[in-house]
């Protein structure tokens, strides 16, 4: 039985990609799995995964990079694993140290250099310089690790140039979790958005869109900025918002059951246009029609299946019109939802991605 240790200095212990999907899948298929986290909540065993706490992570971003990363790496080495699997780009700085003890996999969740270009907390003058430096550093370490797991085909295309053992493992939904959601025959005029709440994720456009809608928007997520939350609550469309805050997976299933469509209207930033957001596929798996940003990659998924409507994410009126069409045409929109669900059952599901992960591990 190979020993595998996943390591994160930033993600929560029950992160869907890391714990629910990757760690749990490996534990169910013959691997002895540990997960190193930094949250101060202590150790526990869950889903046959040993979760080991390296202590609460530093609150400062820079202190986390300097200290928390070192703490989780030291805890990981104590597990004496055959394979170490890191989930944060700053952990690449410890590649040499970890590879003295076992093989090393880098899990690229995001296209970090492109993500940096849209970070408001970095001065615009420095963004491009930092992005270029980050890409060069990330590529340097990716070439040295044993293999790379990429969260999207776009990220795989980038890393396979430097490391031939690169596999795309998409963050698609687990069918057994969302595929059994039941929808009442008579629904309220609700649509939903599930995920982090911020301007770049379409927060203000969604709220403004509700000014044109005869219905309500269920928001299930945490505001990433107090300033943006305060501003959002001043908008006229806020009176049609049901702010549910953070919701666990059971509550999310209830929200999906009550809703008649799911929104994913992210702004066209450089790191989103080639992304595959999990919420898009979770809506589909739950049998909901989607209202999605009209990015080429997303249009190529949504339009051929006829499982939703693609909109200009910067045009609240356009978004509102799409919501009204869904609400006013229940038979046609229900058919959209059924087609989306069928597509996840055949293609866009974790069960298929799990086999890719296991095959990748077999080459370690």
From TrEMBL:
GO terms for biological process: lipopolysaccharide biosynthetic process. The keyword Transferase applies. Residues 24-164 form the Glycosyltransferase subfamily 4-like N-terminal domain. GO terms for molecular function: glycosyltransferase activity. It comes from the Bacteria. The keyword Transferase applies. It holds the Pfam family Glyco_transf_4. Keywords: Transferase. Residues 185-342 form the Glycosyl transferase family domain. This is Glycosyltransferase involved in cell wall bisynthesis. InterPro entries: Glyco_trans_1, Glyco_trans_4-like_N.
């Amino acid at each position: 039985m190979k020993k595998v240790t996943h390591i994160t200095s930033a993600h929560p212990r029950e992160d869907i990609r890391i714990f629910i999907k990757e760690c749990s899948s490996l534990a169910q298929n013959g691997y002895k799995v540990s997960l190193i986290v930094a949250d101060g909540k202590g150790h526990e065993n869950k889903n046959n995964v040993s979760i080991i706490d390296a202590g609460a992570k530093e609150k400062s971003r820079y202190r986390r990079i300097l200290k928390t990363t070192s703490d989780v790496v030291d805890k990981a080495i104590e597990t004496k694993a055959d394979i170490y699997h890191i989930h944060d780009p700053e952990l690449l700085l410890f590649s040499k140290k970890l590879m003295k003890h076992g093989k090393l996999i880098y899990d690229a969740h995001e296209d970090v250099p492109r993500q940096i270009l849209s970070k408001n907390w970095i001065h615009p003058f420095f963004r491009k310089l930092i992005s270029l430096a980050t890409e060069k550093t990330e590529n340097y370490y990716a070439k040295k690790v044993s293999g790379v797991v990429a969260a999207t085909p776009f990220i795989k295309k980038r890393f396979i140039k430097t490391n031939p053992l690169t596999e795309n493992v998409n963050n698609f939904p687990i069918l057994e979790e969302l595929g059994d959601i039941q929808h009442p025959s008579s629904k309220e005029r609700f649509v939903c958005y599930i995920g982090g709440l911020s301007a770049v994720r379409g927060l203000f456009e969604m709220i403004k869109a509700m000014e044109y809608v005869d219905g309500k928007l269920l928001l299930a997520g945490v505001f990433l900025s107090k300033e943006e939350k305060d501003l959002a609550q001043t908008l006229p469309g806020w009176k049609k918002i049901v702010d549910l805050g953070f919701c666990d997976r059971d509550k999310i299933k209830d929200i999906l059951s009550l809703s008649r469509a799911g929104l994913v209207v992210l702004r066209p930033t450089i790191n989103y246009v080639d992304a595959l957001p999990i919420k898009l596929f979770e809506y589909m798996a739950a049998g909901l029609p989607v209202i999605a940003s009209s990015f080429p990659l997303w249009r190529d998924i949504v339009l051929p299946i006829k499982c939703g409507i693609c909109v200009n994410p910067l045009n609240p009126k356009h978004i509102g019109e799409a919501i009204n069409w869904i609400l006013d045409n229940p038979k046609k929109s229900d058919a959209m939802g059924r087609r989306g669900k069928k597509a996840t059952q055949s293609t866009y599901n974790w069960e298929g991605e799990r086999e890719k992960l296991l095959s990748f591990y077999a080459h370690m």
